[in-house]
Design a protein that fits this description.
Chain lengths: 119, 119
DNA sequence: CCACTTTTTGCAAATCTTTCACAACTTCCC
DNA sequence: GGGAAGTTGTGAAAGATTTGCAAAAAGTGG
């Protein structure tokens, strides 16, 4: 059976059966843990996935394990997502992370730092 | 399902019924195990075949057998694939191997993301 | 016995994962 | 605003695992 299940938006494709990722049509190699983590996030794209859930589903860790390995993997995933890492993987402080499907940036909007009066 | 008894791309032909291999129109002699392994890989060309699956289908080994014989055969196959060995048989670290159908190296082509207007 | 094939063995090399120390940031409260 | 406490980001290093490889040993069929 060829159920080609994948996540897809205008910059990023994750193929769960082939275990591969493309960013802007460019194949990106993921390690196993990176892929597991990305899967856990994209499978719930748009929703917050708590740290505890990630640590349990991806690492099999119990609730009382203290580690920074999740953060490190998040950082590597963000990198491999090219320039979009920060946009895709959002940090929910004190809770977890959320993979945010791509949204075209607003055509133009003044950023706060542009608004400072130049003395 | 009419199984095509032939794998074929621009450098490599595997005939499953004759149990033979040609690389660049040159016949290559394979031993039995080499051929079984190549079959298992090319039959799923483009997909990852986990080590465990190879050890089971080609060797009949159970899940708890520790051996490096698979790696040794992979190496010999790569050699017999001429200069293309590394390109054809890809190592998926911690998972298995993948026979990758031949792809012509890109001459040069602008990728979508190169085309975005800068400034 | 001989030629050939296959498996084992023991490192070396490559790769991936986790930890660590500390910087940066968020939140909360006075 | 200005700490204090807790959380996350980060680069580098250590730790653990996997794979590559060469040579030797073991198996196979003539």
């Amino acid at each position: 059976m060829m159920s080609n299940s994948l996540y897809q938006d205008s910059h990023c494709v994750v193929d769960f059966t082939l275990a591969r990722l493309w960013v802007d049509r460019r194949a990106v190699t993921l390690t196993r843990k990176e892929y597991d983590l990305l899967s856990a996030l994209t499978a719930n794209a748009g929703e917050i996935v708590p740290r505890g859930v990630l640590l349990r589903t991806v690492w099999g860790y119990g609730p009382d394990i203290r580690t920074r390995t999740l953060d490190v993997h998040i950082r590597r995933l963000r990198r491999k997502l090219g320039g979009y890492g920060e946009q895709y993987i959002e940090t929910i402080f004190g809770v977890g992370y959320r993979f945010q499907p791509w949204r075209e940036p607003k055509p133009f909007a003044a950023e706060p730092h542009m608004l400072r009066a130049s003395a």
